[in-house]
Design a protein that fits this description.
54 residues; alpha+beta; 22% helix; Aminopeptidase; 3-stranded antiparallel beta sheet; Acyl_CoA_acyltransferase; 48% strand; 3 strands; 2 helices
Length: 54
């Protein structure tokens, strides 16, 4: 998807997930946390990520 985004002119990827889902996956793939809502749902955080594509 990142390559498709780059080919269509995108320079940044932004996404969100929960701490129990894919946090480690995105960190391992070059994304940086830029926001976190703690206790968004009973004991879990919603995490916002960004990654420069170019």
């Amino acid at each position: 998807m990142e390559n498709i985004a780059i080919n269509n002119g995108a320079t940044v990827s932004v996404l969100d997930t929960f701490d129990f889902q894919a946090e480690d996956f995105y960190l391992k793939n070059g994304y940086q946390v830029f926001g976190r809502i703690i206790n968004y749902t009973r004991g879990h955080s919603r995490i916002y990520f960004k990654k420069k594509l170019i």
